[in-house]
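User: structure tokens for this one?
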Amino acid sequence: MTEVYDVAVIGGGSAGLTAASFNGELGRKVVLIEREYIGGDCTWSGCMPSKALLHVAKLAHAVRIAPDYGVAVGSAAVDMQAVRDYVQSVIREVYQHETPEAVAKRGVETITGEARFVDPHMVRVGTRQIQAKTFIIATGGRPAVPPIPGLDKVPFKTNRDFFDNDRLPRHLLIMGAGPIGMEMGQAYRRLGAQVTLIGDQVMPRDDRDAVDVLRRVFADEGITIVEQLVTAAAANGDEITLTLKDGAMVTGDMLLVAVGRTPNVDTLDLERAGVMYSNQGIAVNDHLQTNVPHIYAIGDVTTGPKFTHYAGFQGAVAGRNALLPVGKAKGHDEVVPWVTFTDPEVAHVGMTEQEARVKYGDAVKVHVMLTALGDRTVAEDDMDGFIKLVYRGRGELLGATVVADRAGEMILEYQLVIKTVVSLRTMTSMIHAYPTYSDVARKALARVLVKELLESVAGRLFKRVVRLFG
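Assistant:
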């Protein structure tokens, strides 16, 4: 017997949950099909457990450096079983709002199982046949595993099982120096492990000056970064050995592979639905439709940015577009913030300096303000970082990079200016509470305005008048 729905959403992560809930709450007949656990990677093996682990690691680090600030404390002994229990408790706390019972209150039925297309209008989940007017594919991605000789014989971890770990390794090896590798490397070093990060480039999408700050911080904390490719892997008992491109070897007793993500497209039988895809994911148009108009794709399964907040944004847009026959909204945005939650954090939005120069050439200007010039950052000894603003003209903000303890909270101010929700002049004229990190963000914008004013013809004339009558 075929079951008929208005909307069938395949994948219960951030993107799928948002799309399904939008339609369910508006009274449409919606089914959410998830093969594992509702909540997806963000809840179970990504955002939430990683931030919980980073919180614990920061506490351990604070205990160790407390004497530098006049606070006498004992040693920071780490119980990894208790750490694991805390991380898992955070997962459970978040999941209680994503259970099938919670989702049902939003008007969404859930089915646990793997969906495979039978044709463009039907999927099979076990013995059940689901027909829908609209399908939304939100199956996300999984950890990529590089084809390195011997790696398949090594007991390595990925983010899928790393947060269930209850053993502090003597020496953690991390293959991959992107955001996940950097965050987990710093976390485990602060928990007490020796850490070596191995990757051909450190955080390749981020501003190089920001990366240089993290290099210095990591070196001070005793983290080793090796910028090379791994050519072979082997295990001998509890020892794991990685061979590098130059022939050197690195040995540890735990290995985390964090070299990127692979979209989950291979088990959907997309060929039967006529949906085009590649190893990079499913291509979609501006409205998030695949080449089959009633089938949408959103989040990490597409070829676009791989961020939970971007997936949630696309889930809301796809949910709306699936509901309305006309006036479909655009499901892509070029002004996307991202944050690497190291300490200090690295946040970015808009164009990098390099991207801006490619597009606008010599018209691009850059202003850098060190966090050492911010009153709240000085008070909290958060002086390793900086704010870099990329702009043109008299202050058309094109992009921003922030390196600070709360960079992820500060970046929104710049996003609002870049998207012209608020003008640069208006943002700087707004009274910010003092002393706050948001006021430090405002101060950097104000410095751009003052700099441009003083360098303008009117500004130079004003300075002459001041000198004349001063």
